[in-house]
Specification:
single chain; alpha/beta; TIM Barrel; 3-stranded mixed beta sheet
């Protein structure tokens, strides 16, 4: 089993002595008001600001403006409380872990890690490159080989190409449902994610990455009514280039599932957050040949996979 994390650097963390790698904190975005209680800390009120991240203006509190000690005073909270109200019972309990702590936890329980380097062009622009401390931590714990239970993923292309020459760890090119890698946008390169999944684009990806991490709609598009259409040839095309295909993100709630797999009474106020036929959706994806899935309920995902394997 692989544990997914996202890497973001805090400002001042690179001021540690050169003999030690900078610490890396683990969150999904560098703007942390949606996932922590930072807005409730009056001592950090002055840190609220607006920045341009990947060409989009974002207002809030940003990891790079805090030291690690300051980030450790924050506590996590449910990102989507309307969808998952029960989870709010855990608000305020958990700290933000460092990536090193995540690796230690993964090794303790015999699982792997799947770190995403978030906004690499932006972090390079402010002098907080993500890749070096990431690789240093993996090397420290002996996870720097091709057989290590590690995948490094990125929505950009340039940092994966740089990583290819620096590590044997498996690399994954993320493919969003729309848009383009920001490093290509910043360089004036007109290619989009759609261009990257053409036969020519996949050939290029295979030169520096080991697989794709794609939105589910790249595998099975949905129509205007939310119902699934015919699958694309992406899995077959990627496999022909020796690329694994992982897909994201399978979530159990009706509002997060294709219409084909929603259950219950649509008129009920609880319908959007009610659990649908998530196992049916997982079975469909596995039957199409995906090599792995991101799931908000990994227990269900693994149980579904294991059951299908025993049937083969």
């Amino acid at each position: 089993m692989i544990l997914s994390v996202t890497l973001l650097l805090g400002r001042n963390l690179c001021s540690l002595r050169p003999v030690r790698p900078p610490s890396v904190c683990v969150r999904h975005e560098n703007e942390i008001s949606g996932t922590t209680d930072v807005a409730g800390h009056p001592e950090f009120a002055g840190r609220r600001t607006t920045k341009t991240i990947d060409g989009v203006q974002v207002t809030g509190w940003f990891t790079e403006d805090f030291t690690l000690d300051e980030l450790r005073t924050l506590r996590a909270k449910e990102r989507v409380p309307d969808l998952r109200p029960d989870n709010t019972a855990f608000d305020g309990l958990a700290q933000i872990p460092t990536f090193e702590e995540v690796v230690q936890l993964a090794q303790k329980y015999g699982v792997g890690v799947y770190p995403e380097t978030k906004h690499p062009t932006y972090f390079d622009s402010i002098g907080l490159s993500l890749e070096e401390p990431l690789l240093a931590t993996l090397k420290k714990y002996g996870w720097d080989g091709s057989r290590s239970p590690v995948f490094i993923q990125s929505f950009e292309t340039g940092n994966l190409k740089e990583l290819r020459s620096a590590t044997r760890v498996r690399l994954i090119q993320l493919i969003n449902a729309t848009g383009a890698p920001y490093d290509l946008v910043a360089a004036g390169d007109p290619r989009t994610y759609t261009d990257l999944v053409t036969p020519e684009g996949l050939r290029e990806i295979s030169r520096y990455a080991d697989g794709l991490g794609v939105a589910t709609t790249r595998i099975v598009p949905a129509g205007p009514d939310g119902r699934l259409q015919q699958p694309t040839t992406l899995i077959r095309d990627a496999h022909r280039r020796g690329l694994a295909v992982h897909t994201w993100t399978v979530r159990p709630e009706n509002s997060q599932l294709p219409a084909d797999y929603r259950l219950g009474n649509p008129a009920s106020p609880a319908y959007p957050r009610a659990t649908g036929d998530v196992m049916g959706w997982l079975e469909r994806l596995f039957s199409l040949g995906v090599d792995g899935v991101f799931s908000d309920d990994p227990g269900i995902a693994r149980a579904t996979r294991d059951r299908l394997l025993t049937q083969d």
